[in-house]
Amino acid sequence: MQGTRVRALVWEDPTCRGVTGPWARETQLLSLRVWSLCSATREAAMVLSDHNLEISRLQESVRHWEQQVEDMKKSCKILEDKM
Fold first, then answer.
1. Which H or E run contains 40?
2. Distance between CA 18 and CA 62 in Å, rounded?
3. Which residue spans adopt a coiled-coil conformation according to this UniProt entry (predicted)?
């Protein structure tokens, strides 16, 4: 998204249109670099989102099993008291 904005600004700037030589190449390289960084940032955010989702699922599973253990402890305590 940011790379697109940079490219749009470059093309809208009349001083950049029709520029040849090192400035054009440098502008193009900078634009590609910005696009690459934005792409890497999006990918990292997606990976973090996936990891956060997995952690959330695991925490819910842990809470479920903790509740199961507590229920079992209560059942055992009741059986011990009856004996």
1. helix 22-82
2. 62
3. 48-82
